[in-house]
């Protein structure tokens, strides 16, 4: 049984149908942040992707800058900045800038980059991305604390680098993407960061939750620190209605398009029996399409993996479109 209050939020990858106006899609994503703020939700996250069509949001920082002007209290997270694609000084400058614009409401989410096609377009080797994530976090955390950094690597050369504008708050919250590999948990412990679990109910991702959390706790303990489960975010698809049949009818058309896109991003998912039909996904507990009781049951499953995890993020996957 939970002993801590669960926060609620929204994660926008985004998922925009290919035949939809990008202008209208971005406007909807911004209005959704305003609505979430009015409802009293705790967090709202925007992703970064450069290929694939559906997830056409190249800059979570720009989305946050716009959303900050329409919202008042809700925290705004980068979900995530793909650090290997950016000079770390430029990333630190942008993050500090939008934290000022939002009066300290930014959560800096960082990751290695999800889509191999993004790395390919930039001429990068995706196998180097985890090392670059570690290097980038090392530099950015120092810059955000006001340090001057002189450091050279294979992908940046910084000389007396520093941020002219520092974050609004002295202690900006940082989150590291954590999906299947243990790397996210280890880095979260290393940089005293939270964990953004974007595959928390997906095949492999659910099983990895408790292991990655244990790795984070063990690594933190080695340095005399402790991890707080309240800083873990678990993201999943949830669509509820009065009855399961009604919920199924509402999402059946839109989810087929979404499912086809997701499967094309991974050979593993393409061959997975759970990703063949909507019914298979529900049966495998990868998504919730049903009643409020079904959503509560999913939260309980996650809580068994990581007791008292901090925030449930509902993915805005446009299932009913």
Describe the structure.
The protein is α/β, with parallel strands linked by helices. The protein has a single domain (7-239, 290-315), classed as Alpha-Beta Barrel (TIM Barrel), CATH 3.20.20.30. The protein contains 11 helices and 12 strands. The strands form 2 sheets. Strands 1-2-3-5-8-9-10-12 form an 8-stranded parallel barrel, surrounded by 7 helices. A two-stranded antiparallel sheet has the order 6-7. Helix 2 (60-68) runs parallel beside helix 3. The radius of gyration is 19 Å and the shape is globular. The relative contact order is 0.13.
Which homologous superfamily in CATH is the superfamily?
Answer: Luciferase-like domain
CATH class: Alpha Beta
Q: At the third CATH level, what is the topology name?
A: TIM Barrel
Secondary-structure class: alpha/beta
Q: How many E strands?
A: 12
User: What is the helix content?
Assistant: 40-55%
Biggest pleated sheet: 8 strands, parallel, barrel
Q: Give me the number of helical elements.
A: 11
**CATH architectural designation:** Alpha-Beta Barrel
Could you spell the SSE succession in H and E letters?
A: EHEHEEHEHHEEEHEHEHHHEHE
Average predicted confidence as pLDDT = 94
How would the global form be characterised? globular
Strand content: 15-25%
Q: Which spans have pLDDT < 50 for at least 5 consecutive residues?
A: none
Pfam family, one: Bac_luciferase
Protein name: LLM class flavin-dependent oxidoreductase
GO molecular function: monooxygenase activity; oxidoreductase activity, acting on paired donors, with incorporation or reduction of molecular oxygen
InterPro entries: Bact_Lucif_Oxidored, Luciferase-like_dom, Luciferase-like_sf
């Amino acid at each position: 049984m939970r002993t801590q209050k669960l926060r609620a939020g929204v994660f926008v990858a985004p998922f925009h149908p290919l035949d939809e106006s990008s202008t209208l899609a971005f406007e909807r994503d911004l209005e959704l942040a305003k609505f979430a703020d009015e409802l009293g939700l705790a967090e709202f996250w925007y992703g970064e992707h450069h290929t694939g069509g559906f997830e056409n949001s190249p800059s979570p920082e720009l989305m946050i800058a716009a959303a900050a002007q329409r919202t008042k209290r809700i925290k705004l997270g980068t979900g995530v900045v793909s650090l290997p694609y950016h000079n770390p000084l430029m990333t630190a400058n942008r993050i500090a800038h939008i934290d000022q614009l939002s009066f300290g409401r930014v959560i800096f989410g960082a990751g290695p980059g999800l889509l191999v096609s993004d790395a390919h377009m930039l001429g990068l080797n995706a196998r180097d991305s985890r090392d670059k994530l570690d290097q980038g976090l090392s530099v950015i955390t120092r810059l955000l604390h006001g340090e001057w950094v002189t450091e050279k690597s294979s992908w940046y050369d910084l000389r007396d680098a520093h941020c002219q504008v520092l974050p609004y708050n002295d202690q900006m919250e940082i989150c590291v993407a954590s999906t299947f590999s243990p790397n996210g948990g280890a880095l979260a412990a290393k940089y005293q960061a939270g964990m953004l679990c974007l595959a928390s109910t997906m095949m492999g991702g659910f099983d990895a939750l408790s292991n990655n959390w244990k790795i984070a706790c063990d690594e933190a303990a080695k340095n005399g620190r402790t991890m707080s489960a309240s800083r873990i975010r678990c993201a999943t698809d949830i669509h509820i209605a009065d009855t399961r049949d009604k919920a199924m009818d509402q999402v059946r058309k839109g989810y087929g398009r979404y499912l086809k896109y997701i499967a094309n991003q991974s050979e593993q998912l393409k061959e997975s029996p759970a990703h063949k039909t909507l019914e298979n996904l529900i049966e495998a507990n990868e998504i919730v399409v049903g009643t409020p009781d079904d959503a509560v049951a999913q939260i309980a499953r996650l809580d068994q993996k990581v007791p008292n995890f901090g925030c449930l993020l509902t993915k805005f996957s446009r299932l009913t479109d």
